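Quick one, tokens below:
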């Protein structure tokens, strides 16, 4: 029996020897080098296996022929997806751009409101009918809340200064515990100190003369205007407060606030609580959106006649006055609003969404709905229809404001003419 067992072990060993030899003779697997990146479409920063936090400038190159738009997407890294269980959804990380980028900033990714964990990025480029992924970086770790055991190392300069301070101290200093110092103080002095501390104001309680906001989400962007299309001017964290200086004159409900550093900007009303009396705050006119740069085409090689570089891009507007029926509306009853979208630009536009908001001037009682529109050729228009049911603030003046392509799915040559308004009305009481 022992002899048969020895023969089986020897046979198994002989079968394994050729396989091990083949593995040793194969070329080692090495990480991909930078030379393997597409020089016309890549993400150079952040690199794989990198930790980021707050706002991150994503750098790289997007200079493919026929480029129309480019943007960055992100998603959480799902281990189930890696095992072949299906793809998870991608989300936009940056606003679209229509100008080529060569070894520069592709866009800024704000990670403050995302949960910590592993993510991946991909560069999307549109050179035809739809955007396609052309570069991907994975994994990227977001760590806005480091673990408690993470240590912040003291800079070398500070450490050397500390050593010099301890070297200058006399060697014969008594090692008296700190508790002995308080024991030597009279009890009356200790009571006075604690009374003074109790009278001092607590820094966490806002000391504002007027109304203020309190942030209710992990991270809240403050922008130069009253939509996500405006650039950032600051960031507030959950629980932070800021005084209210006004409200958007566009009836979007965005509050105009002052940051601790003295800068001012707008913040969305649905991520904060407004505390105090806000009915008398002034209406603030947001600044115009910065124009979207129009890409320029490099001139061809020297020729008898060089064609001029064309300006090319879609431009969406509300064509005519929106149709509302019935008008005026009645509380807790649905009314219909019909909108005509027109492309007055020089290139085909993709489809998108129209945001329709019914509210008072100060943004209270907001009822919001969205209606899609299809892609439009230059000069072409299309009708879209939506329904809204106002439920509060009857017998008061209501405004209906519209924003074409509110989420910036279409990169336009002019982003300043996307807004319009229907005729205001007094909401009838009805059954409310």
């Amino acid at each position: 029996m022992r002899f048969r067992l020895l023969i089986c072990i020897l046979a198994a060993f002989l079968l394994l020897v050729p396989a091990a030899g083949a593995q040793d003779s194969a070329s080692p697997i090495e990480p991909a080098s930078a030379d393997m990146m597409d020089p016309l479409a890549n993400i150079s920063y952040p690199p794989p296996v990198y930790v980021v936090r707050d706002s991150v400038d994503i750098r790289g190159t997007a200079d493919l022929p026929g480029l129309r738009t480019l943007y960055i997407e992100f998603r959480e890294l799902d281990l189930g997806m890696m095992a072949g269980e299906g793809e998870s959804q991608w989300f936009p990380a940056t606003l679209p751009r229509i100008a080529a980028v060569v070894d520069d900033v592709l866009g800024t990714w704000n990670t403050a409101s995302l949960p910590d964990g592993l993510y991946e990025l991909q560069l999307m480029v549109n050179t035809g009918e739809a955007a396609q992924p052309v570069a991907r970086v994975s994994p990227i770790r977001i760590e806005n809340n480091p673990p408690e055991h993470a240590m912040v190392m003291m800079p070398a300069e500070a450490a050397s200064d500390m050593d010099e301070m301890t070297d200058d101290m006399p060697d014969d200093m008594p090692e008296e515990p700190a508790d002995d110092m308080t024991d030597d103080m009279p009890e009356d002095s200790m009571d006075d100190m604690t009374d003074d501390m109790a009278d001092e104001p607590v820094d966490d309680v806002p000391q504002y003369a007027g109304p203020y906001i309190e942030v209710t989400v992990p991270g809240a962007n403050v922008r130069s205007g009253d939509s996500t299309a405006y650039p950032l001017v600051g960031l507030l964290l959950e629980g932070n407060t800021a005084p209210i200086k006004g409200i958007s004159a566009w009836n979007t409900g965005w509050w105009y606030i002052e940051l601790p550093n003295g800068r001012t900007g707008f913040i969305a009303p649905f991520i904060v609580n407004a505390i105090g009396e806000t009915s008398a705050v002034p209406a603030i006119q947001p600044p115009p959106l910065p124009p979207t740069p129009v890409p320029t085409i490099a001139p061809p090689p020297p020729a008898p006649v060089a064609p001029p570089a064309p300006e090319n891009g879609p431009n969406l507007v509300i064509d005519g006055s929106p149709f509302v029926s019935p008008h005026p509306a009645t509380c807790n009853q649905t009314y219909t609003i019909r909108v005509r979208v027109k492309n007055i630009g020089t290139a085909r536009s993709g489809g998108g969404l129209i945001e329709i908001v019914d509210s008072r001037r100060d943004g209270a009682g907001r009822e919001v709905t969205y209606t899609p529109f299809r892609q439009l050729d230059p000069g072409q228009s299309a009708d879209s229809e939506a329904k809204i049911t106002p439920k509060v603030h009857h017998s008061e003046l209501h405004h209906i404001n519209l924003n074409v392509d509110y989420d910036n799915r279409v990169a336009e040559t002019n982003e300043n003419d996307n807004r319009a308004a229907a005729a205001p009305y007094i909401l009838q009481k009805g059954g409310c």
